[in-house]
Amino acid sequence: MDYKGCLERGSLFFNEQSDLKPKGTQRARRGLISHINFAISYVICILLQKIYLNTMIQSKNRIRDWTESLLAGGRYTFILDEAKKSFPDVSEDSLRASLLRLSAKGKVQSVFRGFYIIIPPQYSKMGVLPPQLFLDQLMKYLERQYYIGLLNAAQYYGSAHQSPQETFVFTEFPSMRDTQTAGIRIKYVSRALPSDKYIRQIKSEAGYLRISSPALTIIDLVQYQHRAGGINRIATVMAGMAEDDQLDVPDEGLIKATKTSVLQRLGVILDSLGLNHESGLLYERLAIRHPRIQRIALNPSKPKEGFHVDLKWNVIINTTIEPEI
Any idea which fold 3-123 has? Predict the structure, then answer.
């Protein structure tokens, strides 16, 4: 409805009415009827505009109440199609407009096309919902297998003091674009996912989460060390896991699925931390699978000449491992 247009036409009508000078009875009568019809149209226009505005306000309130009812039932997410089915009398444009207004007020947020999170009062100051409260629902919506890994998984195994600013999610191919919106940063790492044997399900406020097992976590930390803050931070995390008796040595199945160079570097780190028992187990299992291992550098991006070689793991020690205290 064009509310401004109604007012302009109404103003024009009253101005013309005041300047009206009858020139003959029939002409004056036709002019009067024309102006009366216009006035009626103007009034109807105003009434329809008010009805439209009231409907918009009611729709906005209904959608807000609906999201609050979902939250009261323990839900932190919904999808656009679900909202459409709940409000069949509201057009999609009006629905999107209402959700946009709720988003501006920090009540909801779109983190993926057609997927919304609801922000409860306890997170209103942050203006964002922690990813662990909606990631499982998001991946189900996308029909993707996944697990949470690296430092995010290590937090559950004795390295809670390591607070990553990003959430790393391992998922299958094809690759996904990272999610970065309003304080939420989710990095997706595409790979052939391991057996569910190496994935754990943990309970969260919103249901369950899939995270890497301790053994898979340390494998990923070494393989993707550039995403985990480097070798010193990895060593710090492993030390914390070992202190809480949460560090597991990869079994034969995981060793088979892992690059030999990753296992060699892992062995060097375990030795540097004085974890001789774990290092010995890894060496035995690696020797069964790969009796002869090629020489590699601990840090493949640095020069390799002139450095000491760890003969046990056949690794050139071209960087220093210094765990953070």
Answer: Arc Repressor Mutant, subunit A (1.10.10)
